[in-house]
Each structure stands twice: as C-alpha cells, then as structure tokens.
Sequence to fold (117 residues):
Amino acid sequence: MAVGSETQVEKGRQLYLEGCSSCHGLEAQGTETGPTLLGVGAAAVNFQVSTGRMPLAAPGAQAPSVEQDTYSAEDIAAMAAYVASLAPGPAIPTAEQIDYADADVAYGGELFRINCS
Fold:
C-alpha cells in the first residue's frame, strides 16, 4: 500500500493521536511503555490492528488478540497510511504479491519456531 491521500493520512493521524499515542508517543517515537512505530510501515500497522493485537488491554511479552473489533477496515487503512507517511517501511502486500505455490512449509515452520513461538 502506498501512502494514502492527504485526507486519509489526516484521518489516520487523528485516530493515532486518540488511540495509539499514549503508548507510542505523539510522533510515533516510542515511549517507556511502547515501541517506536517509525519505519514499521503500513504492513505492521495493518497486521497488528486488524488481527486485534492492538490496541493492548495490558502490555505483556506476547500480545493476546482483542475479542472485539476496535477499528473498521477504513480506520485501519487510515492509521496505516499515517504511520507509513512518517518514515519508510514495508507496504501492505497485494494479493498478487502473496503466492504460496512454491512455498517451503518446513522452512516457514522453522522460521516461525525460531522467531515467533
């Protein structure tokens, strides 16, 4: 996903200031309770918020997903556009970029066990 329109970025900024800045800082620079978001890109915001990992009910080693939908898809896209506008980072992959035909499932499992479990 490329950086969104000025209107989308501004909407994302407002949502960020209301729901994210208390942990991630007013300029997404991070705080004692939350990491910086500079350079994480739209992909990280989209994943963390759309899966319910953010916003956190309470900080912890592994963020449990939230049961409720806090933000709409439009809101998530706006926040992702805002964070992407702050510093370069990975974009949200398109459907064409996600191709599992030649995937090495065993290697993916190994990477998951090393980095995620």
Observations:
- The chain has a mean pLDDT of 87.
- DSSP finds five helices and no strands in the chain.
- The radius of gyration is 15 Å.
- Residues 6-19 form the longest helix (14 residues).
